[in-house]
Amino acid sequence: MYTPIYLPSFDVDLAVAEDYLFEHSPPAADKLAQSLDEQMVNLKKYPFMYPVYAAYQGNVAYRIMPLPYQFLCFYTVDEDAKIINMSRVLHSTRNIPEIL
Question: Do residues 4 and 10 make contact, with C-beta atoms less than 8 angstroms apart?
Fold first, then answer.
């Protein structure tokens, strides 16, 4: 089993996404959080289940996990340490390669 590490950028992104959704629809914010929690259960067991984000041309192999409302979760896997680095939560309409 892999251990998730939530980077500060991930925490900030998730808080911004949840705040935005909460302003428009509190149930939507709950759905985003619940979906992330549910997907983390499987991700801890199978960290390679989501594809590598091919649009990013940097040195890091970000994987991309879809979330509700067109949000995307980006993470990397340290196979040797058995760690999942939860990096960002971004809306799909943003310039993601530039942000990463």
Answer: no
